Amino acid sequence: MTNHAFPGEAGTPYSVPTKVFHVRDYDLAATLTSGQAFRWQWRDGSWVGIIANHWVQLHADEFSISATCAEPISDWDWLTKYLQLDLDLCQVLMTFPDDEPMRAAVTACRGLRLLRQDPWECLASFILSSTKQIVQIQQIIGLLCERFGEPVSAGTNYGPAYTFPSPARLARSTEAELRACKMGFRAPYLLETARLLFGGQFDLARLYNLPVEVARAELMNLPGVGRKIADCVLLFAYGFQSAFPVDVWVMKALRQLYFPKRKVKMQRLHRFAAKHFGTCAGYAQQYLFHYMRTKGKLETRTSK
DNA sequence: GCCCAGGTGAAGC
DNA sequence: GCTTCACATGGG
Q1: A227 touches strand B (CB under 7 A)
Q2: Threshold 0.90, pTM exceeds
Q3: Which nucleotide is nearest to A131 (CA to C1')?
Q4: Does at least one atom of strand C sit less than 7 Å from the CB of A136?
Q5: What does the pLDDT look like over A175-233, one tens digit per residue?
Q6: How many CA within 13 A on the CB side of residue A103?
Q7: Distance (Å) from CA A118 to C1' B13?
Q8: Cα–Cα dist A88/A130, whole Å
């Protein structure tokens, strides 16, 4: 469905609340639940979320994703970019190493994609992610948005919806208010980072044009941001394809699949990842992560 | 009760 | 330099 000029309004894009995108090899459910983004909810056969200040409902079938917003939209570039709809997944998969673990991961996770998120929301979300399960991260972020986000209009019969709170809004919150969102010891990290951004001492927009190593080092200057969280932001928000976040699941995957029965330290895993997984190492990482998290369930389901 | 979760920073060797 | 520990909170 392409944009048509509205009769009588030549040159004006035709604003509609719904648009259909033709896709192939796009597993929307896997993508939205694979621990990259934490605000998507499954409701009545669709995925509902908020991207910037757009409430959006996504419905996927085998060859398309249809998007419905609460208000008419003339320019859908924000969604195309967020979902990375122009990416040719085959080109990415071709860069993966041809070994048994990656073949298994690609087979198990066909259609898994990387999103391209807003750097601030991604950074704040992953500051809140440390030693938390994904469901709990979702809960914390849900509370944070309810209490500090701006309301946006949602579809009828859906509850109130909120933006992700700005650095400015969080900068004038208190640690106690943030702790009340169940984020525990992460509260001072988030508060201090929000204040650094709001005060202009740190500029997230500047990182786009930096070499990945420099951008990583910059992010790691922020409180509560170490190598792993920095790599998540580099990969999920800035699109640095070489960023390779190593969390407990990926560490388990690398040790089990590539270094069985050997004690391997983190630094060695990073060096191995950097040379083994190719130019889209971050993408490969997401396949390993999702594969490790889902294969147990698949095995128990199929063995019954 | 126990161990674990998309870790980090500080203290101790 | 490297290893160990505290840090909140909830799920299994």
Answers
A1: yes
A2: yes
A3: B5
A4: yes
A5: 999 999 999 999 999 999 999 999 999 999 999 999 999 999 999 999 999 999 999 99
A6: 3
A7: 42
A8: 32
